[in-house]
Amino acid sequence: MSGSDTPSVIAWDSCVFLAWFENETGKPLHAIEATIRDVEDNRVSMIVSAIVVAEVLNKAGESEARDLLKDFCKRSNVICADTDFRIAEMGAVFREKSIAAEGMKKLKAPDALIAATASLYKANVLYSFDPDLLLLSGSPVIRGLSVARPGEAGQKFLDFEGGGKA
């Protein structure tokens, strides 16, 4: 995936885990499964926010999905990141910047915290299906963090400083 000796660092939003666990049709399950293989083969490191864990464990009612997530998070190249003060503070800044950006609505707190976690842990990309996060990909609102759908390269969707599409 990365083409170098150093694995790339990625993060997943809750909705990507849920698509995988629930085998959601219409979602790029092949790309999600390819990423899982990359993590299993130590080609990729993954950041998993504590917010993601809480959301997924809450929504993945059946114990098999809960156990899958718990086992996945035990891998040496999967970093389960607690929401500390730095992440909370950055998440609050992301929320405020999102409302100040033209044409945007305020990011929900969980989304802001997930993006802040990915940013602080220097993820190359945050994978998500959330349209609000995807819209912010590469923007200064989230410190230039790349956000993409699984299977797509991260790209800049909006230029918030210039007001138009990039």
Describe the 3D structure.
- The structure is a single chain.
- The protein is an alpha/beta fold and 166 residues long.
- It has a single domain, classed as 5'-nuclease (Rossmann fold, 3-Layer(aba) Sandwich).
- The chain contains 7 helices and 5 strands, in the order E-H-H-E-H-H-E-H-H-E-H-E.
- It has helices at 14-22, 29-40, 50-59, 63-73, 85-100, 109-120, 131-135; strands at 8-12, 44-49, 78-81, 125-127, 147-148.
- It has a 5-stranded parallel beta sheet.
- Strand 4 (125-127), helix 7 and strand 5 (147-148) form a beta-alpha-beta unit.
- The longest helix has 16 residues, at 85-100.
- 37% of the residues are buried.
- Residues 155-166 have low confidence and may be disordered.
- What are the secondary-structure elements, in order, as H or E? EHHEHHEHHEHE
CATH architecture: 3-Layer(aba) Sandwich
In helices, the fraction of residues equals 40-55%
Sum up the overall morphology in one term. globular
Highest CATH level, the class: Alpha Beta
CATH fold naming = Rossmann fold
The total of beta strands comes to 5
Rg on CA atoms, Å? 15 Å
How many H/I helical runs? 7
Structural class: alpha/beta
Number of domains: 1
Percent strand equals: 5-15%
Low-confidence stretches: 155-166
Give the strand line-up of the largest sheet: 3-2-1-4-5
Overall residue-averaged pLDDT value: 87
Instruction: State the end-to-end CA separation.
Output: 26 Å
Q: What does the main sheet amount to?
A: 5 strands, parallel
State the fourth-level CATH superfamily. 5'-nuclease
